[in-house]
Amino acid sequence: MDDARAGIEVSRMFAEFAVDLAWRDVPHEVVHEAKRALIDYLGVALAGSREPLIGKLKRIYAKRGGEPEARLIGDEYKADVMTAAFINCAAGHALDFDDTHADFFYHGSVTVASAVWATGQMLHGNGRDVILAFIAGWDVGARIARALNPSIYIEGWQNTPTCGTFAATVAAGRLLGLNADAMCHALGMAASQASGSRQNHGSMGKPFQVGKAAMNGVLSALAAREGVTSSTIAIEGPLGFAKLHAREFDLSSALDELGTRFELQRNMYKPYACCLPHHAAIDAMFALRRKHGVTPERVERIVCGMPAGTLDASTRIDEPANGLEGKFSATHSAAVALTDDAAGLAQYADERVGDARLVPLRRAIEFVVDPTLSRGQCTAQAWLRDGESVSVRVDHPRGHLANPLTDDDLVDKFCANAAGMRHHERHMQALQPLWSLDAADDIAEVADLL
Asked: For residue 157, what are the β-bridge partners?
């Protein structure tokens, strides 16, 4: 039986939660996590703003842009609110360096942060309003993703642009002052636009479709403010988003502890600039190198064991042709980590991925499914040319909830992402007001630093 006929008003419950959420309802640690997430997003978007895709999108919209309502991150140019949300979101996802939910493949911040950052500037909103909208949107998007996983992912949909469209809609709608009825209509319009295929992994199409989710969320909220209506059960209805995107789902679980348990507390931040399942393998390579002295020239063969469900066509491109494909090549991530003792932006540049000297090592590394391993775990056994064999195991890679990045780690990541930017010193000045964003009277003033 579909959830609408069972009397579960999922869309209405989400709408009322988003509209009614008050500052006093949010624990201090959740507010702090929101600041961490926004800082991580903005730093990654700064770095991503230099990617070729973003230049192409800017050329498209420079000729057709609307009102200068919000700044494009890393640029002096301002665009209309929907365009800013789109391009900033694409920049925030272009490097696949943005945060990820601990329990399923969902980049929780990029769509909702892009929506609140652009809408907040347009409205000259204060920091508290922006943070509350961000938390509300993050929670709704992640709860939908949780209810539909793993089925939606197995069906080939990318969680971030699909579920993230609802996150962006709720966040923008909250800032625009929608009431619960209008928010329901906005969610209905979001359901009409939520899309994104995993076939696009390893290409510009992946950040493009994620960027569109932020844009579509802002559009849905703006349309609802103008009185545009839609189905009010477009998530849970018999022909709703859940039924169309997943063979199995449990939307009632999405409402568990709504308003008292926040999904943002399940957020993880990436230390490495690639697909999340590779991170445990990268740490395994670091362990082989740092603890056992394994270097590429000593390797005969390496076998990495990974959990079921983490190795498929979208995460293991064996012969990557460019940096984007390298981010989804488990063998490249392992090979470059063992060779460079690093897995930052430089390791996924086109030039590094295309370095022919890495090819023999990539071909000497095999990834296999180990059903005894859980999400985030990895084993690696290396057979060396001198006959020696060494093995390592990683249970909690760096960035995992059990091995999290600290505030100082996130500042270091922000600084590294902003390195080389034309206005580097100005970007560095943004850190203090971002850590105290709840005291900001107008986030447009903070945005001007980025």
From this structure: 197
Q: Which of 401, 397, 347, 405 is nearest to 377 (CA)?
A: 397
266 and 103 Cβ atoms separated by less than 8 Å: yes
Measure Cα distances from 109 to 41, 191, 340, 406, 433 in Å.
7, 19, 29, 18, 19
Mean pLDDT, rounded, for 413-423: 93
pTM reported for the whole predicted model = 0.95
Task: Give CATH for domain 10-269+405-447.
Answer: 1.10.4100.10
Amino acid at 287: A
- Spatial CA neighbour of 289 closest among 330, 327, 343, 328: 343
| CB neighbour burial string for 337-373, b if at least 16 within 10 angstroms, e if fewer | bbbbeebbbebbeeebbeeeebeebbebbebeebeeb
- Beta-carbon contacts of residue 234 (< 8 Å; ≥ 6 apart): 11, 187, 188, 189, 190, 191, 192, 240, 241
Q: DSSP letters along 272-302, please?
A: SSS-TTHHHHHHHHHHHHHHH---GGGEEEE
Tell me the CATH number for domain 278-394: 3.30.1330.120
Strand partners, 70: 79
State which H helix or E strand residue 433 sits in: helix 431-435
- What are the boundaries of each domain within the chain? 10-269+405-447, 278-394
Q: Stretch 141-147: mean pLDDT, rounded? A: 98
Task: Please identify which residue in the block is written with the tokens 């064991």.
Answer: 305
The contacts found for 416-421 with CB under 8 angstroms, 24 or more apart, are: 416/344, 416/345, 417/43, 417/44, 417/46, 417/47, 417/97, 417/345, 418/43, 418/46, 418/47, 421/46, 421/50, 421/74
Helix axes 110-123, 81-93, angle to 10 degrees: 150
DSSP 194: -
For residue range 64-84, list pLDDT tens digits in order: 878 999 999 999 999 999 999
Residue with tokens 């539909």: 148
